[in-house]
């Protein structure tokens, strides 16, 4: 038996905080590592000890194997827990930890290397009789040739990939070469291996995964399955356990296949085997040799602390339960909150969080990287927190997590909370009829107001008007009469869209707003530092707000509104007028986010059309295209590959004078 008294967690954010929680319960001392950019992060403050990693790049910090191992030695740690992402599935890291005489809280480096190479893992699964999707490997040229035989659509996947990265759909031969290039570049950047392969693309499959725990005594136990089909850009955003509508016969096949694979490679510690379901057929997808982001839903329905079991397994202890002792208890749903803007095609939204208030209640669990105001840094993953709810059945869990998401307040950055609400409210999710293409069918607009007598923009307009009153009930009678007679209008910019509203001002605490041809009266019942209580036709509404650089941000029912006085429409509105409008005059294309320039696609003097890619930016571990919104000539380029640009920074100057 190995003794573990102190553990260094080679990670950050919510997973580091979550691992610390169990370690503290076990009486184990915790050590955090961090770069200067994370000096105020929650995981740094939650740890018993902390060690600074010099440098502000991922390569210098969370991906620096030598420095992390050195930090563990400096701290006197007995073991390292990798969490997920970063070095968690790097076999060289696991090897370096063990060669340093430390305990790696995870599987062997041999298992990590084997399952981390997706093509080798596919071959092994096929040899063991586990179904795999048709695919092929080879050089870029060989893949171009093989693609015609496989037929479209196809999936280009990184051989060393994982976590939804390094995956792209190809609909036709015309885009294959560019997609291969982009995926190879992403694979090289994220996984240090540019190798990719092709796989037949299943149009509407389900993504089901089986959680495993295996000790060093030959015990391999599956903790049932999770439904992970709701994804966007191959990133899971809503997960649940157990998967709805899975018959026991299929569930048993999935769990048996997962255990057979783990047993064949002598797997130990926590791992997850992922499958795609196409009707009643299932196919091996990959094995993640680490703890998963979505592990909380499994913990909630089984009552098993997976991190605790990981630590115990690493010390040489047997599992504390057998397969027959694992029971399903109720249903759990998890929703991931990301710093991204759904209205702007989900571009990353790093920045300063001005207000952060989380809900609370029985059955609710929130794993988070923030505990109040703080910075969401564009250099890291965009996930801010995970909201998990456990109930005795699926529908209760669905309704309760919706309630808590509506009461989850984050102001200062844009988030996907309203989009999560739309997904959870959708008829498909309610019926448990989900698949991996579901997010393409759900609008990214704001979620509904439910019982509100007015639309979201009207409610936010009312909140904006009340935010400018001094709250006193006494007012000059002539002002009352004047406002009653004039029926003023207000023009605002709400989330970059111009809104015109007519209203009647009765008093500093009573305003009526025109909605659907009639005036609806609203009363301000109370106003505090960041919260106001409104009554609209007998229904109470709590609105949160925070001021930032001349704008006021509002939150209501999961929706957020960034409100400012109206501005003239910029030239991007031309993009909505016709198929390929011609730009008039000059227009500066600015960065939609803070990020790093990956590639500049145009040069000065070139003509571009609407939709053409001008530049590729990377922010929060995602590549984003900056596209032209009209036909124009590139007048000048103001950023180069490798350069870090700020939000709204000038990138490319376009001119509409096509005769120049």
Secondary-structure blueprint:
Elements: E1 6-9, H1 13-25, E2 29-34, H2 42-46, E3 49-52, H3 65-75, E4 79-81, H4 91-99, E5 103-104, H5 109-116, H6 118-127, E6 135-136, H7 140-150, E7 154-162, E8 165-170, H8 176-191, E9 196-200, E10 206-214, E11 220-232, E12 235-241, H9 248-264, E13 269-278, E14 281-288, H10 295-302, H11 306-314, E15 331-338, E16 340-341, E17 347-348, E18 351-353, E19 355-357, E20 364-368, E21 374-376, E22 383-391, H12 394-406, E23 409-411, H13 417-425, H14 427-430, H15 456-467, H16 477-486, E24 489-494, E25 497-507, E26 510-515, E27 518-527, E28 531-536, E29 539-548, E30 551-556, E31 559-564, E32 586-590, E33 595-600, E34 607-608, E35 613-619, E36 622-627, E37 632-637, E38 644-645, E39 650-655
Parallel strand pairs: 1-2, 1-4, 2-3, 4-5
Antiparallel strand pairs: 6-9, 7-8, 7-9, 10-11, 10-13, 11-12, 12-15, 13-14, 15-22, 16-17, 18-21, 19-23, 20-22, 24-25, 24-31, 25-26, 26-27, 27-28, 28-29, 29-30, 30-31, 32-39, 33-35, 33-38, 34-37, 35-36, 37-39
Helix pairs in contact: 4-5, 12-13
Low-confidence residue ranges: 471-485, 567-578
Which overall shape is indicated by the principal axes computed on the Cα atoms?
globular
Proportion of β residues? 25-35%
CATH architecture of the largest domain: 2-Layer Sandwich
Mean pLDDT: 89
Helix content: 25-40%
- Count of β-strands: 39
The CATH H-level homologous superfamily of the largest domain? ATP-grasp fold, B domain
Question: How many domains would you count in the coordinates?
Answer: 5
The main sheet comes to:
8 strands, antiparallel
- Cα-atom Rg, whole angstroms? 27 Å
CATH topology of the largest domain: D-amino Acid Aminotransferase, Chain A, domain 1
How many helices? The count is 16
* Terminus-to-terminus distance: 77 Å
The strands making up the biggest β-sheet line up spatially as 14-13-10-11-12-15-22-20
Query: Briefly, what CATH class of the largest domain?
Result: Alpha Beta
Structural category is alpha+beta
